[in-house]
Amino acid sequence: MGLLTIGAFAKASRLSPKALRLYDELGLLTPARVDPVTGYRRYAPEQLDRARLVAWLRRLGMPLARIRCVCALDAGAAAREIRAFWAEVEADTAARRDLATFLIDHLSWKDPAMTETTSPLGIRYAALSDAGLVRASNQDTAYAGTRLLAVADGYGSGGGPASAAAVDALKRLETDGIPAGNLLNVLEDAVEQAQRAVRGVTGAGSGAGADEAGTTLTAMLWTGSRLALVHIGDSRVYLLRDGELFQITHDHTMVQAMVDEGRLSPEEAASHPQRSLLLRALGQGAPDLRLHDARRGDRYLLCSDGLSAVVPSEEIRRVLAATGEPEPAVRELVDLANASGGPDNVSCVVADVMETQG
Ligand code: MN
């Protein structure tokens, strides 16, 4: 079979001649022959598969440079590249979905003083951090106050000062007034200050050394009717509501990304040797921001991976459901981590949403 005219090739590939000319100009699909006199493009029938692949990849939203790469690969490698591309798209979409949810909540916010008819809500809380049984020092920082709840897990040499600096920088949220419509900006500013504070104590940014210090940061700000969440890294927040336990944060770890991509089961992730490898940390990547409506009786747990890596979530649920005050709850959770060998620093913050008297 001889070469096809652009019209015949367009028909056979179900692409327009205009698209084919564009693909040629972009170097995605070069005609088998271009007439030197007339400039007419001619295509070989074997080019049909590639033309269709280019069209599908365009429909997928893959950038042109990446399509060029995929087309140069054999089928197996091309499949892997498309899978990797799609995992990135989904991660990006998930991050933007969270931001959209936050903005919707944020913009629908009503001043509770104007609408509240029942008793006002408040929180009672406790925080506890422990070095564990193996580590020489405690690089975690845990804090709980009338408005701020925070857990930070420092790593690298200088990880302790890093986690302390991050939480310290957020403490001004305890005293600063928070204008009702301004929560997002207040949080972003606080995170920026925390990043600066961490850079100040670690000297980070001078290059990614193997032992560069840094910290995770997972914090909640009580607004009087809601809890605003800032989260980056692999510390976690759980919510106990009506006896059920929900993990409301997403770990920014390599193994979690592999679970999301379907390349690892949650069970494999839990015992993976690289399970603590972070994809994001404070100052490296954007934190997740979210608002949670507070409900009377809700119990929140913020914890570092020193708890969640060794104590099964069913055990965590049992302790949170069975203990009364926050203080014995954090004590029992830290004890459980240490009873499991205490391989890491462990931090817990428990906060209960309650009706306030008077
Ligand atoms: Mn840790």
Task: Offer a concise description of the structure.
The chain is of the alpha+beta class.
Could you please describe the fold and organization of this structure?
This protein has 358 residues and is of the alpha+beta class. It has 2 domains: 4-72, Multidrug-efflux Transporter Regulator, Chain: A, Domain 2, CATH 1.10.1660.10; 120-355, Phosphatase 2c, domain 1. 41% of the residues lie in helices and 21% in strands. It has 13 helices and 14 strands. The chain has helices spanning 6-13, 17-25, 48-59, 64-71, 75-107, 112-115, 159-170, 183-202, 254-260, 266-270, 305-308, 313-322, 326-339, and strands at residues 4-5, 33-34, 41-43, 121-130, 140-144, 148-155, 214-215, 217-222, 226-232, 236-241, 244-247, 288-293, 299-303, 346-355. Strands 5, 6, 7, 8, 9 and 12 form a 6-stranded antiparallel beta sheet that branches. Strand 5 (140-144) and strand 6 (148-155) form a beta hairpin. The protein is elongated. The chain starts with a strand and ends with a strand. The relative contact order is 0.13. The site of manganese (II) ion has 6 residues, from helix 11.
